[in-house]
Amino acid sequence: MLKKCGKVKRKVNSELNFILHLVCFFLLSFLENSPLKALFHFSPYFMVIENINLPPHNVEAEKGVISWVLLDNETMWIYDSDKLGYKDFYQKEHSFIYEAIQQLWTARKTIDVVTVSDQLSKNGNLDVIGGTDYLYELSTFLFSTQPCWEYSKIVREKSLLRQVLKVCQGISGEVYEQKDTIQIFDAIEKKIFDLTQNQVGDSIISIGDILKGRIEEYMEIVDNPEKFNEKKVMSGYKGIDGMLTGFKPWELIILAARPSMGKTSFALNVLTDIALKQKKSAVMISLEMSSESIVDRIMSEVSSVPMYKITKGDLDNEDFAKMGEAMEVLGEAQIYIDDKGALTVPELKSKLRKLKIEKGWLDIVIIDYLQLMHGTVFVGNRVQEISEISRGLKELARELEVPIIALSQLSRAVEQRVDKKPQLSDLRESGAIEQDADAVLMLHREDYYDPDTDKKGATDVCIRKNRNWAVGEVELHFEKEIMRFTEREEKVRDASY
Fold it and tell me: What is the distance between the terminal CA atoms of the chain, rounded to a whole angstrom?
């Protein structure tokens, strides 16, 4: 690790000192926008490498990584996203073990002491790592199953530091050989470029390459128009779908409202339409309500049996007949519910990745609601925490290629205005929600604020943001007894410009 020091181990001549100074300049220039920049500091004239005989590493973190994946195989999704490879491990025993783990993960096999031991034996490395006894030791290294997201980051960071150290040592050797200065600079530039290239990946693509793929997609749509909507899911409301053109993979849609406006009911209406009419898979992540309460609401909507009858158990033969028909339909639907509270984005990622592998595809995910999620690290600032969650949900939508509808609370600022219709600025706790969202839908009920209004039961769905098309309002009618929103086609107000 490079750091400032006031004392040097040896004196260098001015020419060598000048070259080393330029090496640092080149490093910082090339790593200006890279996370590697934060990994080291330098003085203008002298540099020293601490523990030169012991490169940067953290054995405890390496043990933690292996121990955690032995406890929970789904952790490998996190390690993959962190681009953690077996070469990142300093201790050769850990490198061999993680290589075996990666091989098992690629083959979609169970990862435990027995399977890893068998894979190590096939690779000829079981005796090298200390046999099965050491694997059992690692499996009990962690005292808790609580995830620690930092282990892989620590291992990866130390690996990067060792790479930086290796580059610097190579440059120093070339300087001592007193080669041509131009050749030295050229070698420095190449080594630094190779190092940074490994971190940024191949995300920059020419427009020509993109167009080649898009033209093929355009032609396929012309020949087969239904293909255009194949990966989309619809809300089930013509006015909303006309403006949004459906919910597309990789989109983050925010559904926001003040309490008691019907967010959850509207979201469940969308979910049942997707699952029952469109015959697609839908996932409901509830952080507020139990799975039983959610099922009761869905049952009331599908069967048309009033909610109060279901909750009280006040059911007659006709109600039972209707509910029996609804149960038969819902029993075959691809609806999945998770009601675990206090969920983090990485935990959600693990759940959805596993479900996608098992089912093959996910068509939509609904989260009720965003403010009940937790960040991975408590920073003492809820705004920053919500920003982290919002960004994580957007990245998850892109990764899994699935639209995510996240319900969100609005701030009390709405109550202070004469005009109670919500605006984007009313999104609670963070402007990042507005920035990350591809579409923002807001619910407003006039009769909530004015009991004497002639718009009893009317709910305005206000589309305040839409990256792809129009904005406007759609008036729905809420049938409270059966938790169902219905639409009147003439009640669509286009606000595009």
Answer: 56
Tens of pLDDT along 186-209? 667 666 666 665 554 455 667 777
Q: Which of 249, 89, 225, 209 is nearest to 157 (CA)?
A: 89
The Cα 411–Cα 265 span in angstroms is 20
For the chain, list residues with pLDDT below 70. Answer: 1-53, 78, 80-82, 143-149, 177-180, 182-183, 186-187, 189-205, 210, 213, 221, 225-230, 376-380, 428-431, 489-497
CATH topology of domain 235-494: Rossmann fold (3.40.50)
Q: With beta carbons less than 8 A apart as the criterion, state whether 151 and 83 touch.
A: no
The crossing angle, in degrees rounded to 10, of helices 14-30 and 181-200 is 30
Which residues have C-beta within 8 Å of that of residue 440, sequence separation ≥ 6? 253, 254, 256, 424, 427, 434, 463, 464, 465, 466
What are the boundaries of each domain within the chain?
Answer: 14-54+158-200, 59-148, 235-494
Q: How do residues 64-97 score in pLDDT, each as one tens digit?
A: 888 888 888 777 776 766 678 888 899 899 999 9
Strand partners, 477: 458, 486
pTM value is: 0.63
Side-chain half-sphere CA neighbours of 67 within 13 A:
22
Instruction: Write phi, then psi, for 221 (nearest 5 degrees).
Output: -65, -40
Span 59-148: which CATH code?
A: 1.10.860.10
409 φ, ψ (degrees, to nearest 5): -85, 150
Structural tokens at position 174 = 């070339």
Closest CA to 68 of 82, 48, 51: 82
